[in-house]
Design a protein that fits this description.
The complex is a heterodimer. By secondary structure, chain A is of the alpha+beta class. Chain A has 19 helices and 21 strands. In chain A, helix 2 crosses helix 17 and helix 15 packs parallel to helix 18. The chains are: A alpha+beta, B alpha+beta.
């Protein structure tokens, strides 16, 4: 075998110019493959790890109150954080994600910005987060830590670009107008405590402040939370699994407002009662008319969107009828005073099996208006609350504490789900658990598409090159026919002759691929040194600190090697076999 | 001397009126009963928006409204790039239609109408009395006073929101003493910052109800921005049920 290898290597240098040109073509193809793959991989890594992770974390839980994507609020922060902590203790960092578009007025200039809250306690305790924050927010004037100062009115950091467009400097005030999470138009004065520089085009728009400041300004109460995002160890493997686990743990209970119910202006003492929401979705519309027997009032109203239905037991206990106003006072989970919720009864129904007690059914709109203003105690822990039997025929039509959206498994499904929020007219807060590998699957698809395009283009290139290989081999065999006859005559086996040619092509491809890879790394290193100018740069989205980021994937390079070698060996096999099958006598007789 | 005489009259009117300040709840009811339409309505609306450095934007639209079913339809007729776009509300459903793509999209109540300061919820039928209650001072007294707005005697009163989903938690109104028509309205953020002032310049009467036909909304936050709205060609004839449908909007957009 060593002889065959020796002969192959020696033959390789016999036709230097021909082999050099062929090798250069193979090397060029390999170089393009490696560069294109590293570029695509680098681009998706930049988008994922520099932008998407910063915006949404490796996994996240998003909230939308009343189906409004701009109202990202969950009214019971401590409860959901406790569930997360118990369910997924492996989460490295859990933080609130707060951002709000606003109109900002500087010194006689206006612009649109996004106020983003940074949880400095996390940044201070986690060196990797600190490094990440510093990389993204490179403060060139003022101090990053000043965003947490209590003695400054709403301190913020602005990007160089936005400071310029607003004509403000460190120490100046800007005024911001926006609609807060409660739907109110509000205006605030903010103090510019620093200016940061960023090369990432997406990072020019945010103005950063401490999370506590952002929550106060945007209208969150202390116990309310914005959408949550998580950073994980080994996210490629764990993100989807953790998202699945959290999704399972976040199944809601039936929502109930339980407290003392009185008929207004009746002078009677209150009775303990529970109000449930009637779902207005197709399931609710199907179940309610079948299960509920209306004994007083208009059925069209009772089964419509404005239903306030008292059970017979409740109506009898209160001596209440159609048109009476009742007031349910219930204790809020975080409020010190009882919250009064008023409803006007417009129907009375027969008692429903599985709901034992004084029960009032309220349309979703009226129910969640009260529920969101004053969050009631947890239904399971509240001794006053009627506990609906899961076997109750009305159970599936009762509104829940929140609406857990199905897991979307790719970006398209996630976008469909966001679009459906408005269409489905949810009244309760929706909870959406996702990981970046699903919500941003389009980035991965883009990387795969780029790789596929590259591979197809390079395969075409290789096809042309391999025609050259075949041609070269045929010419070589023709030139060496007498030589083949000689070595066959002195005892070389057919398989050795065949292997000589195959190995010659193999070595040519191997050395060319190595040279192509080295050239690719040289070009990538040189290109990565080039600093792209700031400003309106079409490449800005994929630049990392104004440089193109190449991220070669060793596995992909190994696959390219194997692919090229396999193709070239397979191409060489048939001409080599033909050479091996030549009869020694005929080969010796051959004359060119 | 003339000035002194005028001031004396104003002062006298104010003193006289202060003795008989009406309850704010009654004023609110009166304002609503004066202006609430009970019939269908169709009008041509012209919206002119002035923005500091961005210049002036003018929109023309046809507006159909049916309070009974809580429905309205807006079809933009100018400028050319907005022509055919529209907004349809039917109960809880709210759609935006784009002529270029011929698509309907569900939108939220706070969506801007064609990039102007007007929001979709500005066109909703929501009773003032259902959203606001009289604001009170430190002594628990309603904040209401008699004033002169220019040369017109008005009641000035303050309101606060009783529900959470309103844009402005505080409002101040100036309504004519003689016919309870709103002349001026100021909207405040929760912090007390004045956000917007609205002037109702001209009313017309339709079926014994008053309808404001010329209004100016001044952005108090971003000085120099204001929006003027003019209504014309008002008709209160009953509209067909097919008007408040997607098909009608699509058809009108052609």
């Amino acid at each position: 075998m060593n002889t065959v290898v020796d002969i192959s290597l020696r033959n390789l240098v016999r036709q230097k110019r021909r082999n050099f040109l062929l090798g250069a073509a193979i090397g060029f193809g390999m170089m393009i493959l490696v560069i294109a793959n590293a570029f695509a991989h680098g681009m998706s890594d930049t988008i994922f790890n520099q932008i998407i992770v910063y915006v949404s974390g490796h996994a996240n839980i998003g909230f939308a109150e009343k189906g409004d994507f701009m109202r990202q609020i969950f009214r019971d922060g401590p409860r959901i954080k406790e569930i997360i902590k118990k369910t997924a203790p492996e989460i490295r960092v859990s933080q609130e994600s707060i951002g709000m578009f606003m109109r900002v007025i500087g010194n006689d200039k206006t612009d649109n910005l996004v106020l983003v809250g940074i949880d400095k306690s996390i940044s201070d305790s986690d060196p990797s987060m600190k490094h990440h924050d510093n990389k993204m927010v490179n403060v060139v004037e003022g101090k990053f830590d000043d965003i947490s100062r209590d003695d400054i009115e709403n301190p913020v950091l602005l990007s160089v670009q936005k400071a310029k467009s607003l004509n403000v400097k460190k120490g100046d005030f800007v005024r911001a107008r926006f609609r807060d999470v409660n739907g109110h138009d509000v205006a605030f004065r903010l103090t510019v405590v620093g200016i940061f520089k960023t090369s990432n085009v997406f990072m020019q728009m945010p103005m950063f402040t401490d999370l506590k400041v952002a929550k106060r300004v945007l209208g969150y109460r202390t116990w309310e939370t914005a959408s949550l995002q998580f950073r994980l160890n080994n996210p490629e493997k764990t993100a989807a699994a953790i998202a699945d686990k959290l999704h399972d743990a976040l199944r809601p209970n039936v929502a109930v407002l339980a407290g003392s119910l009185v008929k207004r202006e009746s002078g009677r003492t209150g009775i303990t009662a529970s109000a449930f929401a009637l779902k207005a979705d197709s399931l609710g519309k199907t179940i309610v008319p079948h299960v509920m027997k209306i004994i007083a009032g208009d059925t069209a109203i009772a089964f419509g969107k404005s239903a306030i239905i008292a059970t017979k037991k409740l109506a009898d206990s209160l001596h209440a009828g159609i048109g009476d106003t009742v007031e349910l006072s219930y204790k809020g989970k975080y409020a010190e005073q009882e919250h009064p919720a008023r409803f006007v009864i417009n129907a009375i129904c027969a008692d429903v099996a599985g709901l034992d007690g004084n029960v009032l059914f309220v349309n979703e709109k009226a129910f969640y208006s009260e529920y969101d203003v004053c969050l009631p105690q947890d239904p399971v822990a509240n001794p006053d609350a009627v506990k609906p039997d899961p076997k109750c025929p009305l159970f599936a039509a009762l509104g829940t504490e929140w609406i857990l959206l199905d897991r979307s498994h790719n970006s398209a499904a996630a976008q469909d789900q966001i679009r459906s929020l408005g269409r489905k007219q949810y009244r309760a807060t929706t909870v959406n658990v996702s990981s970046m590998y699903e919500s941003a699957s389009q980035v991965l698809q883009l990387e795969n598409a780029l790789n596929l395009i590259t591979v197809v283009a390079v395969l075409i290139l290789f096809f042309i090159i391999l025609i050259g290989v075949v041609n070269t081999l045929r010419m070589t065999i023709r030139e060496r026919t007498r030589e083949i006859g000689t070595i066959r005559a002195i005892g070389m086996q057919k398989s050795d002759v065949r292997n000589t040619f195959i190995l010659e092509t193999f070595f040519l491809s191997l050395f060319s691929s190595i040279a192509g890879t080295i050239a690719a790394f040289a070009i990538m290193t040189a290109a990565a040194f080039y600093r792209f100018p700031e400003g309106d740069n079409p490449l800005a989205m994929i630049l990392d600190d104004q440089h193109i980021r190449f991220l070669p994937d060793p596995l992909a390079i190994a696959i390219f090697f194997v692919l090229i070698l396999l193709i070239s060996v397979a191409t060489a096999y048939f001409p080599a076999r033909r050479a091996a099958n030549l009869s020694a006598a005929e080969a010796l007789r051959s004359y060119e | 001397m003339k000035k002194l005489f005028l001031m004396t009259i104003v002062f006298a009117v104010a003193i006289t009126s202060a003795q008989n300040l009406p309850p704010v709840a009654e004023l609110l009811k009166a304002v609503e009963s004066r202006t609430t339409m009970t019939t269908d309505a169709k009008a041509h609306a012209s919206v002119t928006q002035q923005k500091g450095r961005q210049g002036t934007k003018e929109l023309e639209m046809t507006y159909y409204r049916r309070d009974k079913g809580d429905a309205f339809l807006i079809v933009l007729t100018a400028p050319e790039n907005e022509k055919g776009n529209g907004y349809l509300r039917d109960g809880d459903n709210f759609w935006m239609y784009r002529r270029n793509t011929r698509t309907f999209q569900h939108i939220n109540r706070d969506e801007s109408i064609s990039g102007t300061d007007a929001q979709a919820d500005d066109f909703e039928k929501r009773k003032l009395t259902e959203l606001y209650v009289p604001a009170t001072d430190a002594n628990g007294k309603e904040i209401v006073s008699a004033e002169m707005l220019g040369q017109i005697p008005v009641w000035r009163f303050e309101l606060k929101a009783k529900v959470s989903d309103v844009s402005y938690p505080k409002k101040t109104y100036w309504v004519r003493q003689d016919n309870q028509l709103v002349l001026k309205e100021q909207n405040y953020a929760l912090s007390g910052t004045l956000m917007q002032t609205a002037y109702y310049l001209k009313y017309t009467t339709i079926d014994s109800h008053y309808l404001p036909v010329e209004m100016v909304f001044v952005d108090e936050f971003e000085k120099g921005n204001k929006t003027m709205v003019k209504l014309s060609g008002i008709s209160t004839e009953k509209l067909g049920d097919d008007v408040f449908t997607k098909a009608y909007l699509e058809n009108q957009s052609k």
